[in-house]
Design a protein that fits this description.
This protein is an alpha/beta fold. It is built from 16 helices and 13 strands. It comes from Dactylosporangium sucinum.
């Protein structure tokens, strides 16, 4: 079984490639997944020799982009100042991988970032016209060109590209969220469906009366605060067809990204797929391997596997992501239980070498040794 682990570039820089390569080599990892593009973050970093906390207020890239890959993108990536301070994430990642004798995966957060602050025309626009700056619109051509340039750029320097948030961004997904939602499924879904000009045009082309649907959803939002029980959103005329348009946007985006990447591509799925628009079978047919996050003890892993196996869009092959964090697996026995519950998954990826202490970083090696 192939195994890999996620890690941040500052973990590699702070611990050093020599020390970390021993951890990776002892664990028998097939690859390290180094964050090349990442969203905002506040995290504790146990036993890091240089810092105790990491705070990233903006989503940025952590490597030096090659301008040759960005000629067709009107939007330039925001490069973190940490690149000058700590080094280029992909350079650090390659050094670590070579020392450890494993592959390098460019862990790439695509559409959940801070670019909407500088370019509100790229952001998801709600049914009321509000701009959600942390969520880029999958349908927007400029967003798709940005994502394609990003994948081509990081793929030129890695052995694999791992796509995170290459789909509609589920809401709420922001610090200090305060939502008084009596019907969280209905209200949450209404708030995160994009009605920008690009999405409206795609909906109309598919035969949806988008104006009527938008009005119905706005009225539904208000009724959610007044009515104890409501029928599903699918009862609104045009809703299912508009959802199909959202799904097509994600599937076609992934196909474009696979086409631009010079190396294999993996798609990470988590959360409600009605919200993300991810159709896993379609994404797999587009050429991307599919990895589902199953963070938790054995029971949680079994739940995720069962849900995916029963899903109408289930992929033929499902890779899994498991967690090393104490909030997900209380102890070593619980971790091994989660691994056992993964069954015949073709590969496992472990979250996260930089967010746990030295002992837990050894646990993936116990998997390899049985």
């Amino acid at each position: 079984m192939d195994t890999s682990a996620w890690i941040y570039p500052w973990d590699v820089a702070d611990h050093g490639t020599s020390a970390l390569s021993r951890v990776v080599r002892d664990a028998g990892l097939s690859a390290v997944n180094v964050a090349a593009s990442y969203h905002s973050l506040f995290a504790t970093v146990p036993d890091n020799p240089r810092r105790h906390l990491v705070e990233l207020p903006r989503g940025m890239v952590y490597y030096r982009p090659d301008p040759a890959h960005w000629r067709d993108s009107a939007v330039e990536p925001r490069v973190s100042a940490w690149v000058d301070e700590l080094g280029d994430a992909l350079t650090l990642g390659r050094e670590l991988a070579e020392r450890a004798g494993c592959g390098l995966t460019a862990w790439t957060v695509c559409l959940h970032n801070s670019l909407g602050r500088r370019h509100p025309e790229l952001a998801l626009r709600t049914v009321w016209g509000d701009v959600v700056t942390a969520a880029l619109c999958v349908r927007n051509p400029a967003v798709r060109a940005y994502a394609a340039a990003l994948v081509a750029d990081v793929g030129a320097r890695a052995d694999r590209v791992q796509l995170e948030s290459a789909h509609w961004t589920p809401l709420p997904h922001h610090p200090h969220v305060k939502l008084a939602l009596p019907h969280p499924v209905n209200l949450g879904m209404i708030a995160q469906i994009c009605f920008c000009d690009h999405c409206r045009a795609a909906g109309e082309a598919a035969g949806v009366d988008v104006g009527a649907l938008a009005g119905a959803l706005r009225r539904r939002w208000q009724r959610c605060y007044e009515t104890p029980v409501l029928e599903p959103l699918s009862t609104e005329e045009g809703y299912e067809a508009y959802q199909a348009v959202r799904v097509e946007a994600v599937t076609s985006l992934v196909a474009e990204l696979v086409g631009r990447s010079p190396v294999p591509v993996e798609f990470v799925t988590f959360g409600d797929r009605a919200a993300t628009g991810a159709h896993l079978a379609g994404i797999e047919r587009a050429g991307a391997a599919v990895r589902a996050l199953a963070y938790g003890p054995a029971e949680r892993v079994k739940e995720v596997r069962a849900a995916e196996e029963a899903a109408p869009d289930r992929p033929r092959s499902l890779h899994l992501g498991l967690s090393l964090l104490p909030e997900h697996v209380a102890d070593h026995e619980a971790f091994l239980g989660a691994v056992g519950a993964a069954g015949a998954a073709p590969s496992l990826s472990f979250y996260h070498l930089g967010l746990v202490g030295a002992e837990r970083r050894t646990w993936p090696g116990h998997v390899r040794r049985g």
